[in-house]
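Format notes (please read before filing issues)

Several people have asked whether sequences and C-alpha cells are stored in separate files. They are not. Every record keeps both together, in the order shown below: the sequence lines, then the C-alpha cell lines. Line labels are part of the format and must not be stripped during preprocessing.
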Amino acid sequence: MPVTAQAPKAPEARDTGRLLVLHQHYQNVASLSAEGRLAEAEAELRLIVSTCREVFGKDHPDTLTSRSDLAATLAQEGKFAEAEKENRAVLAIRQQVLGKEHPDTLLSRNNLATTLQEQGRHAEAVREYRAVLDVRQRILGPEHSDTLDSRNNLATALNDLGRHAEAEKEHRAVLALREKILGPRHPKTLASRNNLAAVLQEQQRPAEAEQEHRTVLALREKVLGPSHPDVFLSCYNLALCLEAQSKFKDALPIMQRAHTGFKKTLGPAHPYTKSADESQRRIASELKK
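Then the structure lines:
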C-alpha cells in the first residue's frame, strides 16, 4: 500500500500554531514597549527567540531579526553589555550567511556601534559607523535615508570623542538634507537639530544651543505629543543647557519633567532616569545656595 501524502500534516499544524503564537508575542512586545514596560518586553522577546530557533533554525532571518529586536530592547533598558553581545552574535551570522554588504548585516554593524558608543567606547563606535557609512554611500547614494542615518550616527560619535568641529560639520550637512527631503518637522530632522544643539553646547556656545533645544522641544511636542520619550529627552537636554548657563530656576522644572517622564516610560533603574534624578537634585541644590 503506497504511503499517503497526509503524514506530515501534524507537524505542519503544530508549526502553524507556533507561528500564530509568535505573532501574538510580537504584538505583546509592541504594546509593552509602547507603555515603557521594557522588562516584560524583554521576557516576551526571549520567548520569541527561543521559538524561532526551534521552528526556523538559528541562522534563519526571522531568528536573527528576533535576536536583533532583543538586543535593541536590552539597550533601551540600559543593558548595553548584553546588547553588545547579542549584536555581535547576530552580526557574525549575518556576515557569514548574507555577506558583509547586505542591508541586514550593515544594520547589525550599526547597532553594534550604538552599543559601543553607549558604553563610552567612542573610538570603536566611530570606526564601525564609518565602515557602515562608506558602504551605504557607495551602494545607496549620499541622500538615501540609511546613508543619512549613518552620517548622523558618525557625527554623534565624533562629538563624544571630542572632535566637535567635525561633528558640527556633519550634523549641519545631515540637517540640511533631511530638511530638504523630509521637511522641518520630521522626527529625524528634529533629531538632527537636537544633535547639532549638543555639539554647540560642547563648544561652549550655550545660547545657540539653548535656542536649538527650545525649537526642537516645541516641535516635538506638536508632532509627537507631550508624553513621547523624545520630548522627555529634549527636556533633559534643554535643562542641562540652562544649568550650564546658571539658569537654575528655569532648569529645575524642565529637568523634573524629564525625570518623571523617563521614570514612567523607561523605569526607575534606567540610566537616563538615574541621570535625570541626579541632575534635578544638583540643580535644586544650586538654587538653595
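For reference, the curators noted about this record: Confidence is low (pLDDT under 50) at residues 1-13. The first helix runs from residue 9 to 34.
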